[in-house]
Specification:
By secondary structure, the chain is an alpha+beta fold. It has 2 domains: 161 residues, Alpha-D-Glucose-1,6-Bisphosphate, Chain A, domain 4 (2-Layer Sandwich), CATH 3.30.530; 157 residues, 2-Layer Sandwich (Alpha-D-Glucose-1,6-Bisphosphate, Chain A, domain 4). It is 24% helix and 40% strand. Strands 1-2-8-7-6-5-4-3 form an 8-stranded antiparallel beta sheet. An 8-stranded antiparallel beta sheet has the order 9-10-16-15-14-13-12-11. It is globular.
Length: 331
């Protein structure tokens, strides 16, 4: 078991859990910042977590739910307060209701996660700070210590698994619940570079093309709330044409952008007959590049199945490979 110490201080109203690992500090940090890895240990084995948002920046938000053996779900959130990359981060953490909003009947606390190099590898210290002795006793009675021990007991396997999170892996797809899908890909480029590549028309036209033989005659970018975007592609030989339109809902450059999206075609130029999705783009710096995560919310399960069956993920991978090889490599 990686947990080496558990300390309770009723005067300072803190609970500290220390765990030691043989992995480098950067590997441990990435395990917390990469939602694909974090959800493999954040939660006891019988209550695995699914993160539906994970910003990892000051002012950001993480939301997740844990699913029990009977299909019961229990939500939580982190409000990101401070980040010292590779060394520590601080969040306000609490419980969430089924709709994802904070549960006012349960306390919100403060959690500080510190990372340090050791002679054998690295150490993480998770310190929970409570608002009162009553809150502290309540959460300890709910099994917080046992839950953290069980959760951290899974971390060795995650840290040893380099293959599942390597920077050269193709775009990965994960189904989330009944109506969502998450794609993930580490792009070999810096955070600012990858953000610009997603939000500058000149760069988008060079890589967001799908298979060879297509061009992008229309590339109207949205980068602020209320602005609308329009992307259109045309096959060079056949003249076949399609595109997407949508609205920029919210964002925080260079880490997050939320938009709506609907497909357009010559027969439906405004996308009035196309299902509308909500797309949440998150960029996270990790070893090897920038993790690009896209969480898509569909109107229903049937729409999700229909859109994914078009080869969407393969098309995304073609674009990301072109981004790395033809845009970022030349920067």
């Amino acid at each position: 078991m990686p947990v080496t110490a558990v300390t309770t201080d009723t005067d300072a109203l803190t609970l500290s859990v220390v765990a030691d690992f043989t992995a480098p500090v950067r590997r441990l940090w990435d395990a917390y910042l990469d939602p694909r890895q974090l959800e493999r240990f954040w939660g006891p084995p019988e209550y695995p977590a699914t993160f539906t948002r994970h910003d990892g920046c000051v002012g950001g938000l993480s939301t997740y739910f844990m699913t029990g053996p009977e299909g019961d779900t229990h939500g939580g959130y982190w409000k990101w307060v401070a980040v010292d990359e590779g060394r520590s981060f601080e969040v306000r953490d609490g419980f969430a209701r089924p709709d994802g909003t904070p549960d006012p009947e349960l306390p919100e606390g403060r959690m500080v996660v510190d990372f340090a190099e050791t002679a054998l590898g690295s150490r993480v210290t998770v310190t929970s700070v409570f608002g009162s002795l009553e809150e502290m006793e309540q959460l300890v009675a709910m099994g917080q210590v046992e839950g953290m021990r069980a959760a951290m007991g899974q971390m060795d396997a995650v840290l040893e698994d380099l293959a599942s999170f390597a920077a050269d892996l193709p775009t990965q797809l994960q189904l989330v619940g009944d109506r969502q899908a998450r794609t993930s890909r580490v792009v070999r480029g810096g955070l600012e570079q990858v953000w610009r590549a997603h939000h500058e028309a000149e760069l988008l036209r060079r890589w967001m093309l799908g298979p060879d033989g297509w061009e992008m005659p229309v590339c109207e970018v949205a980068s602020a709330p209320g602005e609308r975007f329009r992307y259109e592609w045309q096959h060079v030989e056949s003249g076949e044409r399609f595109g997407f339109v949508g609205e920029f809902l919210e964002g925080a450059a260079p880490v997050r952008a939320v938009t709506t999206e609907a497909m357009v075609s010559p027969a439906d130029p405004d996308g009035a007959n196309s299902p509308i999705t909500r797309n949440e783009l998150t960029l996270t710096p990790v070893a090897g590049g920038t993790l690009v995560t896209l969480l898509i919310t569909y109107p229903d399960a049937a729409t999700r199945e229909m859109i994914l069956s078009t080869g969407m993920v393969d098309g995304m991978e073609t674009g990301y490979a072109r981004l790395e090889n033809e845009v970022l490599a030349a920067a």
